Amino acid sequence: MSSRSRWRDAFFYDSDNWSTILGGFFLGRGTTNATIFTMIQVCFVTSGEFELETEQGFLVGRDDLAARPGNYFILTKGMFYLNPS
After folding, report:
1. Which candidate in 3, 47, 72, 84 could, as Cys together with 78 as Cys, close a disulfide (CB 3.0–4.6 Å)?
2. Which pairing describes strands 17-25 and 70-76: parallel, antiparallel, or unpaired?
3. pTM, whole model, 2 decimals?
């Protein structure tokens, strides 16, 4: 584990492949659910709308509630991939 990754407390996975972490970050004070969606949109290119699901199976709202540490799964009917830029 690299020295930077040990501070991360939110991790992202493809909902079809739970064994590979796509990325992660540290949820600082003030990080909201809406912020998580924005970060996903910056890091990944999607061919359509997407949703986030927690490991407990709850959908995450695009709202200003405080984001919680844990594993998040990207749900989409289209394709998504890492933003090359």
Report:
1. 47
2. unpaired
3. 0.85
